[in-house]
Design goal:
Elements lengths: L13 E2 L10 E2 L6 H9 L4 H7 L5 H13 L7
Antiparallel strand pairs: 1-2
Helix pairs in contact: 1-3
């Protein structure tokens, strides 16, 4: 089995569900908005600082949020 088979795909980490956070993009399995995490990265906060504030996510979720918001500018702006 390839070594990458156990890695989570960053593109699969961001989901939208109308029943959760009004359908705004969130990090899978949480109620953490992708836009909020991406804004914190843009503001210069470190992964460690963000993970301290959002213990339900991990560094894959942070990278996924940044990537998602780069590909979908304006998504999750309510």
């Amino acid at each position: 089995m390839p070594a990458t088979s156990h890695r989570r795909s960053a593109s699969a980490e961001i989901v939208s569900d109308p029943a959760v956070m009004c359908g705004m993009p969130i990090i899978r399995g949480t109620r953490v908005l992708a836009a909020v995490v991406a804004a914190e990265v843009a503001a210069g906060r470190s992964d460690e600082e963000i993970l301290g504030d959002y213990p339900a996510i991990d560094s894959v979720g942070i990278r996924a949020a940044v990537d998602y918001m780069r590909r979908h500018p304006g998504a999750g702006q309510g």
